[in-house]
Amino acid sequence: MTGFWRQWMAVWRLSVAGFGLVLAGAAFEATSGPVRMIFALVGEALPPEMGEPLRFSIALMGAVTLGWWLTLEAAFRAIDLLGEKAAPVWRGVTLSVVGWYVIDGALSAATGYALNIVPNTLLLAGYLIPVMATGVLRRA
For 18-43, what is each residue's pLDDT tens digit? Predict the structure, then answer.
């Protein structure tokens, strides 16, 4: 993957990192504004006084999301090194992204935050569009 689609995927990965930072911001009241806005948009607003367990849980999800971003960065470095032989790595990354989408969407719906499926779908589409457009899954 080169040129436009390569840059697209770099921005896509940065959006994962940005979301992780937003979630991690829930750890402190001073930085919890963006995560409060997200919760209000996709379901029920967070309580005015978030207790430590809620802060911990949301911030921990931020750490996990940042870990996912770092893993994606490592996978994309491997893809760069493998060049035309990177299809197995592309398939693994694609499986992980689709797997996340299915699990996160099911849990979002089950917990009353079904609107979270909308930004998830945009993130999935943002990944799949260049993957399908470039045919990286079919290469040797």
Answer: 999 999 999 999 999 999 999 999 88
